Amino acid sequence: MYGHVRRMAEAIVEGAKQVAGGNVSLYQVQELVPDEVLEKHGAKAAKAAMAKVPVARVEQLAEAHAIIFGTPTRFGNMAAQMRNFLDQTGPLWMKGARIGKVGSVFASTGTQHGGQETTITSFHTTLLHHGMIIVGVPYNGSGLAQMDDVTGGTPYGATTLTGPDGSRQPSENELKIARFQGKHVAEIASRLFAK
């Protein structure tokens, strides 16, 4: 709606690109909300910013050694767009195409207590059904222990707080945690899948 997940995803990409030998790509899932509704809620600028980001195809999930999924929170759960995308992964599940691959999740919430952790941990259920290795955000140098101001971030994955109206943008600490998550996941994947 307001570009928070996109900005966090860009920070995650920055972190992942710090690891040599990786190929990092950014994708979005198919939007389900009609254009007129998006515009009514002020999402026109965010939609325009995403115009150059390709829409992911379910088959691509089988190609990646690691995937870091991002979703806005909807009442403590992932957004319908992401759930719709994941609900199409049954054929990959049947083939075991994701078994042993790395999965990680980040999220945005409207408020500090808006369900960021439940969104991520409930997302993990789908990844576990696919046999993925879940990677979170350890406390070593990631900004999770910062107490100077209100900030997102959990050991389950990076988060940002948007404010009830979406006006708060990701803080530098939240972006730092996202970059750390991207790098951490890429490092683990590179160790697991070293040639």
Q: Describe the largest sheet.
A: 5 strands, mixed
Through-space gap between termini: 40 Å
Shape: globular
Estimated helix fraction = 25-40%
Work out the radius of gyration. Answer: 16 Å
Mean pLDDT: 93
Order of helical and strand elements: HHHEEHHEHEEH
| Percent range for β-strand residues | 5-15%
Low-confidence stretches: none
Query: How many strands appear in the DSSP assignment?
Result: 5
> Which structural category fits the helices and strands?
alpha/beta
Number of helices: 7
Describe it for me?
- This protein has 195 residues and is α/β, with parallel strands linked by helices.
- It has helices spanning 4-16, 35-40, 44-49, 80-86, 90-95, 116-129, 172-192, and strands at residues 66-74, 77-78, 102-109, 133-134, 159-161.
- Helix 1 crosses helix 7.
- The longest helix has 21 residues, at 172-192.
- The mean pLDDT is 93.
Task: Reconstruct the topology from this structure.
Elements: H1 4-16, H2 35-40, H3 44-49, E1 66-74, E2 77-78, H4 80-86, H5 90-95, E3 102-109, H6 116-129, E4 133-134, E5 159-161, H7 172-192
Parallel strand pairs: 1-3, 3-4, 3-5
Antiparallel strand pairs: 1-2
Keywords:
195 residues, alpha/beta, 7 helices, globular
